[in-house]
Design a protein that fits this description.
globular, 5 strands, alpha/beta, 59% helix, 5-stranded parallel beta sheet, Rossmann fold, 7 helices
């Protein structure tokens, strides 16, 4: 099984967002042992920026991304992802790119806390808690 982790799920763990941490951390643990988790190159800029904005140093933000890549595969973003996203019915451009990458990478799921952002997605969006129940 292959799942693309949305930025909010990754940040739940890195920022230890109390309400969401446990489920998101459990999903990442599954990526270590049982499933193939992926995130995209374009997500790294958002992750880096939000970590910095929350008070992390450049070095801490860099190491967070390096650490993530030990457990979750980092996949490229391509020109075709952007062009597909521009044609998409998905309301948010970033989400449309995530959907396009998930489809190209043959992900079974997009694991996100914002399922409604992916209503028109070609890849099924599922929350961390629902994914854990399914698993």
């Amino acid at each position: 099984m292959r799942a693309l982790l949305d930025t909010n799920v990754i940040l739940d763990v890195l920022l230890k967002r109390e309400e969401f941490y446990e489920d998101s951390a459990s999903v990442i643990k599954l990526c270590v042992a049982d499933i193939e988790g992926i995130f995209s190159v374009n997500q790294t800029t958002d992750i880096f920026y939000i970590l910095k904005r929350s008070g992390a140093s450049n070095e801490v933000a860099k190491q967070a991304i390096v650490g993530l890549n030990k457990y979750i595969g980092l996949v490229d973003s391509k020109k075709s992802d952007v062009l597909d996203a521009l044609k998409s019915n998905t309301g948010d451009f970033e989400d449309a790119i995530i959907d396009s990458i998930a489809k190209r990478e043959k992900a079974d799921y997009i694991i996100t806390r914002n399922n409604t952002d992916y209503i028109n997605s070609s890849v099924k969006a599922i929350s961390p808690s629902d994914f854990l129940k399914l698993w």
